[in-house]
Amino acid sequence: MCGIVGYIGEKNAVDIVLDGLKKLEYRGYDSSGIAVVKDGQLQIRRSVGKLKNLEENIEKKHLKANISIGHTRWATHGKPSEENAHPHTDPTKSIVIVHNGIIENYAELKSGLEKEGKEFKSETDSEVIAHLIKKHYKNNLLFAVQETLKEIKGSYALGVICKDEPDKIICARQDAPLIVGIGEGENFLASDIPALLSYTRDMIFLENGDIAELTANKITITDIENNVKKREVKNIKWDCVQAEKEGYKHFMLKEIHEQPRTIEDTFRGRIYPDEGRVYLEEVKLSKEDIKNISNVYIVACGTSYHSGLVSKFLFENFAKMHTEVDIASEFRYREPILNDRILVIVISQSGETADTLAALRLAKSKGCITLAVCNIVGSSMSREADHVLYTHCGPEICVASTKAFTGQIAALYMLALDWACRKESLSKEELKKYLKELWEVPVKVGNFLKQAESVHEVAKKFAHKRDFLYLGRNVNYPVALEGALKLKEISYIHAEGYAAGEMKHGPIALIDDDMPVVAIAVKSRVYKKIISNIEEAKARGGTIILIASESDKTALDKGDNVIYVPDCDEFISPILSVIPLQLLSYYVAVMLGCDVDQPRNLAKSVTVE
Ligand code: F6R
Questions:
Q1: Which of 11, 13, 311, 355 could share a disulfide with 412, CB 3.0–4.6 Å?
Q2: Residues lining ligand 1, Cβ inside 6 A
């Protein structure tokens, strides 16, 4: 996963591909690589770390070619290393590929190829693609790619070249962006617009199922069955900065809008609703190991701590496991009772947060079983924990975390369901039902995001307020905390998240007609309870911003401003109910002229205590 660039034409492809990769550096990466065909041979260079390492490795002056594909990698399967960096080749070094996305069935494809005697050089899911293309290759690269794609399940943006057909690049797209750039006597390929803007503004956005053959003078698009497809050429007017954010004004808004895809990527290849199966390859605990766990501790900081609070409900409700959640900086300085029957789950987007890492080390020193939920492959926590469960959210650039939060809940939801099934606290039929609900979440999030403007309208009314109260109950109480945190950190407005039932024990004194109250009152077992709490706030003059379920016909009577989210099972609802709160804080911060992506005093990864 990360950046792809390709070139075919008269100029030196190496310079153009490297330049394009540099334009994608802002997305983050851990390694990079480039492949060319030169004098009938494939040449591949790969390096860990920054692109300048690759440039040195290339000895740029000596590597010239008219065809090249390059890649910056952000690890998903396999740690960052030269072996795992793209491009990947088949064992005879005649086919070479770069790939973004996730191949869901790579494990079975790989074992089939291994039985045929093929040796793999990397831990990636991508390498199987090069092997399969070679297997199908009979002097027609396009056909070999089409046949390969019939066997592959998952998401891909793919660039392929072959030493025996040095006049073409084949590329293909399914659920991962890929763009073809049109030049004169030259053509380009990229995962993102900024890579190509210095060379062309005429671009074709490939659609799912498209396979394009690029020569220097021609672009032909087909599908897997070789039917020709016509695609519109778009002229891109964006400057480079706009293009980096895909036209969104800030990375935060882009990342909020990415959530349908990042949640789906986190589920991809791991849940099978029809079969009632969860497959979490990286978590290697047996049924007996799980049954032997006496307690679960979830430890994290900030937004990750809030996803931990949601997950407590999942582990207790589904897997019937006693679960406590702790802030990492508190956990490490008290004397938690720990032993080898306790599972400590650390949650961290970066996998580097100092307090969470220290908590993990403390748990290990006490003999606990440890599991890290991380977004960054190869991060300290993912290396040090006994087990790791990755969220597949891609790089999060905005300091305020959004897509990592929903990805963490998605990941822990799968884990809780899997363990519930293995502990037999959930039947196969119930598992199927919940998996089906989960599978529908990305579409529901996407549907909600289509009406993001409605949240903007609410934000306009309240951006001038200096204090906000966020209320939630049960599984949506952590969402109230998260909504308040988002508002505080990017707009510098004072906001408090409260368990709605606690209001009458103090905070209700704060409420007057100048205090907006954001209440999450989606359909759930505590719906009536939170409605009573809302009435109490209204009676004190509070103005209510209500997050309600779409089917709640009486919501308008309860809230002065209602934002509807799609109906869903209550334990999934935090993934949906947090999205309007992310948007609300975003729009308020923009209206106040705050630096949304880089809020004052904050760092993306807090690696000091
Ligand atoms: C809030 C935010 C922080 C992080 C916290 C933990 O938007 O981004 O609260 O959630 O610093 O970071 P990770 O998850 O990297 O351990």
A1: 311
A2: 301-304, 348-350, 353, 356, 400-401, 485, 489, 605-606
